[in-house]
Write a structure and sequence with these properties.
Length: about 325
């Protein structure tokens, strides 16, 4: 029993205190074990490390006097952990408090020394974040409804003219058959069949409150529903009519179009300075606003009624 506990103590110390740049010596390991009330001989450490390696743990031995050891291959390497930390810190749907808690947990996946590097210039207070501390609970309820194929109910929040969050539609209880979740423009959304809208609808997860999974079986998923296609169509331009839109773009915007609509987007050259992109989206004022934001570098070629709606909207803004 003492041997098993000794190996666990060794593994814990190596995991928390060693990495390639910071190997720990056998002397350090012996001092740590003695502080835990475990007496050990230097040669025993080599035997225990050999057992760890045999069990599949990547403990690297640096031959020296005394020998030094460190955990080599970890489940997540430092660059991967840094990306996770940056994503959590900059996320607009995770609160400041939850961001700090999650970053602390990510830091425990590496050594204490490397964990210090994860704390570099991460200022969650400077990011515009929500105040809804129930976000984890809400995500869990959504995933439960998707997994068990049940309807869920919730109330939805919106800002009133006084900049206060209030229940939308006077506390209307929304009923949704969730199909999937997706992340767009650093916001987290749930997509599903809405009983109120009688169609596929999108809701921001951080605006959902009091979610509950019902005992009512979900409706079958539409055969033609593809989450990736839907995300491109919606394009944060909700509740519009889905259309194939032809856009005339200057050549320097090809990266913008590919980033937004994917590499499979249909494009054709238009002379030496422009190209045409045919994209499928839901037409709405937000789409027109996106086009307008490029200051003439993107124009709408068709359909004709979309061109006219855009002109009317632009005229209304100028008036």
């Amino acid at each position: 029993m003492e041997k098993k506990s000794r190996i666990l103590y060794l593994l814990k110390y190596l995991h928390e205190n060693s990495d390639e740049s910071h190997p720990v010596s056998s002397t350090e390991l012996m001092e740590y074990l003695e502080s835990e009330g475990i007496k050990i001989h230097r040669t025993t450490i080599n035997a225990d490390v050999a057992l760890m390696v045999e069990a599949g743990i990547d403990v690297i031995t640096v031959r020296s006097s005394p020998n030094k050891y460190f955990i080599g291959d970890r489940q997540l390497e430092l660059p991967e952990l840094k990306m996770l930390v940056d994503a959590v810190a900059s996320s607009k749907f995770i609160t400041t408090k939850k961001s700090k808690q999650l970053i602390d947990k990510i830091g425990k996946l590496t050594s204490k020394k490397l964990c210090e590097e994860l704390q570099r210039e991460v200022y969650t207070e400077r990011i515009i974040k929500p105040g809804n501390e129930q976000i984890y609970y809400t995500v869990d309820k959504i995933q439960e409804a998707i997994r068990t194929r049940k309807w869920m109910e919730f109330k939805y929040l919106e800002y009133n003219p006084d900049k206060k969050l209030v229940y939308k539609n006077r506390g209307y209880l929304y009923e949704l058959c969730p199909l999937t979740t997706f992340w767009s423009d650093d916001r987290y959304y749930v997509v599903g069949y809405s009983k109120k809208h009688k169609k596929i609808a999108t809701f921001r997860i951080d605006r959902i409150e009091k979610p509950e999974v019902t005992t009512v079986d979900a409706v079958p998923s539409p055969d033609d529903f593809d989450p990736s296609v839907y995300a491109n169509q919606v394009f944060e331009m909700f509740d519009g009519k889905c259309e194939d839109i032809e856009l005339k773009c200057t050549n320097d915007l090809m990266s913008v179009i590919v980033d937004k609509f994917g590499e499979q987007v249909e494009t054709n050259t238009l002379g030496s300075t422009h190209f045409k992109a045919t994209v499928e989206i839901q037409v709405s004022p937000r789409f027109y606003g996106w086009v307008f934001g490029f200051a003439g570098k993107i124009s709408i070629l068709g359909p004709e009624y979309v061109k006219e709606e855009y002109k009317e909207l632009a005229k209304a803004v100028l008036d």
